[in-house]
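Example 3.2
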Amino acid sequence: MENTAVIILNWNGLNLLKQFLPSVVQSSDLAQIYIADNASTDESVAWVKLNYPDVKIIQLKKNFGYAEGYNQALKQVPEEYCILLNNDVKVEKGWTKAITKLLQLDLKVAAVQPKIRDYNKPEYFEYAGAAGGLIDYFAYPYCRGRVFDKIEKDLGQYEKETEIFWASGACLGVKKSVFFEVGGFDTDYFAHMEEIDLCWRMKNKGYKVYYTPFSKIFHLGGGTLSNSSPQKTFLNFRNSLYNLLKNAPSRAIIAKILLRLIIDGFAALYFLFQLKTTHLWAILRAHFSFYKNFYKIRRKRNIPPISNKYYTATSIIFKKIGHIKS
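Structure, written as tokens:
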């Protein structure tokens, strides 16, 4: 465990640090804990220095957001096994061990996610990751234990370590060498779904992403942007389109994007019927931003000619009715 770092990205999160950092410090065994501070203007850094002098501070020059914030932070830590942890997470004793073990034992395992349960409803999975991320034919992400807003109760149904498609950024263990081999987080995302893009690029390079139930955390969620935030809606819709364009196999990718336009249009109408016009506008802005940056994002494609077994559900249906070929 001496080669493991726990890195918490923080921006004006003093109250969250007061609530959640104690459990991380008490329960992380020999892992070195870092606070990567995105130029906070509150007393976050001073409080950590005063109360937890063994926690190392990485002071960034400005608010880089999630993606570039972690890119900058990982360049400044010597440890190979890095666990990126939100500042609104409670952990259990020894939680780092299973994550680091998976990263150590298999050279092809590049990223690992623990079981993520809800801090406020601890018997249930939490929205951001649950028991490991999957993705459908149109690059819409979902999780084992959570589909759309339907959250499962943890009844022991996901108790095996298993390969997944993407690991949640709420708690993401990575090999630092592979993280930088594939280019780190894409800073064009700023926040949200950049971990899916990262994992997708890892898988396109032949690496594996895993879930372990032997590490368990409790995530508050919404610490930066709540699920009701129009800005979160904008980032999620735009960045999922980025993921599709950057990483999906070349076959029928334009058709997928056109179908996404239609499906996202129905989502916009849903918000209209609910009189949530700010979210409707967020979806429109997401598409405007995507098409504006289409060629910039397209230039980032680096897709090997391999299929991926983790296109579940939707792709299986389309194959059965003959709309796409294996």
